[in-house]
Amino acid sequence: MSTIVTPPTPTAGAPTRHDPGAPGVPAAVADAPAAPGRGRGRRRRARGGLWWLRWLSPILLIVVWQIAGATGILPERILPAPQLIAESAIELLRSGELVDALAVSSVRVAQGLALGAVAGLVLGVIVGTSRYADAILDPPLQMLRALPHLGLIPLFILWFGIGEAPKVLLIALGVVFPIYLNTASGLRQIDPKLRDMATVFGFSRRQRLTEVILPSIAPQVLVGVRQSLAIAWLTLIVAEQLNATTGLGYLIMNARDYFRIDVIIVGLVVYALLGILTDALVRVAEARALRHYR
């Protein structure tokens, strides 16, 4: 009579070890891949260890630029060396010209962004929640969006004069459409089951807004805000170069008349830094808002 030998049963709570050569262990278990968290951790550490490469190429570019300018390979009348540009920036800061221009330009962008954002949100909510409004309002808005808003500068000057109004309204016109489109799209994509759940639980209008609608459309609206910020700074560059006596655009145009390429580059660098800074602030606000709603 043969005796059947069964493998010992592991006790509860005792650690087990999958040995590929051990009898009774399925091949699928023996060949199971490592935990996905470990792979992600390695990739994250690998990316974090290469952070210095992101700074290496810009630094090398500036060094090559400085050497080319100092040796005369790159003429100053074409592109001044970084040292001369830095000296011009320090000079503008000491004289207060750059600070005053920055303050004026920031106010214009803030006013245009606020006006365009409010209009975009209102239009987006109306069109995104009503099929009749979508059929009536969306076609003319899409026609207006297809127009290059910078090409409307002559009309804006004729309609609103040469003061602050055409500059702010031109920025607002460029800002309104990204926010409008993202808001309307976000409202259309809200899961109907969430609305039904809110109805079943008897949510009030305020609860529906704060617990269902805002968490659903917040990511898309903030994407629209980021797109609008880039358009606002781009529009400002053009708007301030027409009939302006203050601002970064005026500073650049005045430097052009005196062939001050270094001052022009300082102004462009400030524009770029402002765009990066405002985009970073919106990204921080986006992360906090999503964390709050989660």
Topology:
Elements: H1 27-30, H2 36-49, H3 51-70, H4 82-95, H5 97-129, H6 131-146, H7 153-160, H8 164-188, H9 192-200, H10 205-239, H11 248-257, H12 261-293
Summed up:
This protein has 294 residues and is an all-alpha fold. It is built from twelve helices and no strands.
Describe the structure.
This protein is mainly alpha-helical. It is 75% helix and 0% strand.
State the share of residues found in helices, binned by percent: over 70%
Shape: globular
Mean pLDDT: 79
Radius of gyration from the alpha-carbon trace, in angstroms? 29 Å
Number of helices: 12
Keywords:
294 residues, mainly alpha
